[in-house]
Automatic annotation (TrEMBL), chains A, B:
Its EC number is 1.2.1.41. It comes from the Bacteria. This is Gamma-glutamyl phosphate reductase. It is an enzyme of class 1 (oxidoreductase). It catalyses: L-glutamate 5-semialdehyde + phosphate + NADP(+) = L-glutamyl 5-phosphate + NADPH + H(+). Residues 8-288 form the Aldehyde dehydrogenase domain. GO terms for biological process: L-proline biosynthetic process. Pathway: Amino-acid biosynthesis; L-proline biosynthesis; L-glutamate 5-semialdehyde from L-glutamate: step 2/2. Gene3D superfamilies: Aldehyde Dehydrogenase, Chain A, domain 1, Aldehyde Dehydrogenase, Chain A, domain 2. Keywords: Amino-acid biosynthesis, Cytoplasm, NADP, Oxidoreductase, Proline biosynthesis. Belongs to the gamma-glutamyl phosphate reductase family. GO terms for molecular function: glutamate-5-semialdehyde dehydrogenase activity; NADP binding.
Amino acid sequence: MNKMNVQAEVQLKGQKAKEAARKLASLPTDVKNKALLNMAKLLEERTEEIIAANEIDMDAARKKNLSKALLDRLLLTPERISDMAEGLRALVALPDPVGEIISMWTRPNGLQIGKMRVPLGVVGIIYEARPNVTVDAAGLCLKTGNAVILRGGSEAINSNTAIVRIISQAAENAGVPEGAIQLIETTDREAVNVMLKANDFLDVLIPRGGAGLIQTVVNNATVPVIETGVGNCHVYVDDEADLEMATDIVVNAKTQRPGVCNAMETLLVHEAVAEKFLPMVARRLEEAGVELRGCEKTRRILTQIQVATKEDWATEYLDLILAIKVVKDMQEAIEHIHNYGTKHSEAIVTNNYQRARDFLQSVDAAAVYVNASTRFTDGYQYGFGAEIGISTQKLHARGPMGPKELTTFKYIIFGNGQIRT
Amino acid sequence: MNKMNVQAEVQLKGQKAKEAARKLASLPTDVKNKALLNMAKLLEERTEEIIAANEIDMDAARKKNLSKALLDRLLLTPERISDMAEGLRALVALPDPVGEIISMWTRPNGLQIGKMRVPLGVVGIIYEARPNVTVDAAGLCLKTGNAVILRGGSEAINSNTAIVRIISQAAENAGVPEGAIQLIETTDREAVNVMLKANDFLDVLIPRGGAGLIQTVVNNATVPVIETGVGNCHVYVDDEADLEMATDIVVNAKTQRPGVCNAMETLLVHEAVAEKFLPMVARRLEEAGVELRGCEKTRRILTQIQVATKEDWATEYLDLILAIKVVKDMQEAIEHIHNYGTKHSEAIVTNNYQRARDFLQSVDAAAVYVNASTRFTDGYQYGFGAEIGISTQKLHARGPMGPKELTTFKYIIFGNGQIRT
């Protein structure tokens, strides 16, 4: 496909999405919920069709010698398709954020001013190989009254095409306007470039995937972006920590699911407890298969481990690897987080009241924890339900982006002839 | 100054701002308020110095034959300096948004999760010739704990340099960290380009000025932008409107202050009342010196007026000119607003209950009015106090951007050893 055709496809879909968004904004909740149930049902009914398409992707991926991890992300099974369907059904139970009056007040001149929650409009999602993102994103956007333009990784193009064909048909059958859920079908990378500058029809772009993808989008998009996902998260164990609690939190933050953005990547330990704490925690981490890398002070205590370099401090391993640094006090820990953190999730373990307060105050991140695992930064764990990602930027949304974060508001003003004097 | 020096200046100031922002985030409210009072006092005390600098700018502007309107925007007088000082004093009375706990809840596992309001960090303001923006923006950013990097128009460089020298010194004397208020002193346009891509140290860019400036920033910035200001606002007069009320609202929306973004630019009139309403309103508008331009149907009633072209529908006159279109029903009015509006402020005048509801629901704008003038879209009118602009985009902030809109939040989580299972 040549450059002009790519542009034409994206723009045509953009126009359709924009038209659909106007209708979606006033679509009743029960129509949206019925559509979500239809989508879930049709996904399950047409499992074979999806798996056949997925096999084409899997074959091509194996020929390209993609890594085992990537192949696993790409793979669809009846069980995984069922999970996607269940995800859609779970959305039905969530309250519809659209139309909520967030607040309303009356001015001295009698004007009644309200803030009404409305959809963002058209959301662009740029993501990598995981086809489940297709369903998750489409479902959340529909629930929140947004049109969505999906641009998944080329490895998953056949899977995604089948999925979107099925769910968009199911949605339309329930009364959702055509164009509400669309996939960019060309695998030409130029399509991403067109989306990045499509201010005319995209209200927001949400990249989901690795650091490289996110940086490309942030550095080149003129459409407003919500940056998600990269989490170089730290746990700082203070000299006044309960060391048993600290051990449990560190092991949980590192090993409970190492491949996700809210997992811990670097452990910071106050020097006064390092000699006692590091052997305790190292044993538990090594039992769980974690490779440890440490600063010089750490390696004087854990003599068998590799050295951690500056690169380690900056790395989101997403794997069973942990960097460890001994710090002389909380301030050094905070400086380290300031220099290497990605403003995602940061934790302190301490029983010192003032330090807990100071850490909460000083650390600039979407989520700052006292005496709990960083793994809680998650829409379900916070009580919001499904999320479209974890925002690590400051504008609009921070932390888990649930249904409310996919909306904006407008002021509605009721007067009886007021004019300004 | 060559390109490298420009980049060096912006980056150096960016780094200083970033450092200042960390300290500003925890600066007590009383220090910030004392600084605002100091800034106001020193501005007034050093009025002569500011006016001397302003005269250099005015001389240069006169030599360049700038328009009368631009010269007036640039001019500083003792009275205008006093007004700027009063603006700073007014900020003292506003509540400090920083540190507010927006909400807090407890999860079934005992985790207590709160949303705490925090500053955005470093705010970049790119604006045109009005030196009062320098003081307004610096004051609002300081009140909200943000560092600010100001980039005003080159015509005002001497005025702005004098003002920032004075207010930053006054702020520092009160305990505000160095680097909290900075001006880009090179007038090289390259400085704007550097700011547009300065994701490393700018958390948000706010352009203030004409449509050209705003489009340049939106189309080229990779730093998150809050788009402000362009207002192609409409009033739709329904066939069930109280025509006396409609006349008052239309005259107010057009003439009370025609040069601002919330003034009406196009009047839409239901055809069933056009013959009665247009002569009524035209007489009042012409008395106020408004030039009228109309569609063909309008000109059959107001036979003396010029024709309005497609270009008129798209123009924000910011002047005593009004385009008028007769529409066959509310739906046509909504379509016209959809096609030509800038999502700023839109109004309907009607006594029909269902149409009032439908208009509020269907029109996508920051502020949608029933039976009131569009001129109310303003921080003070909404009860927020001072504002940094009117956001016409959907992400983060919409409508008047007061102190709260210059903040973000972080989740603070209190645990007692919770781990994820």
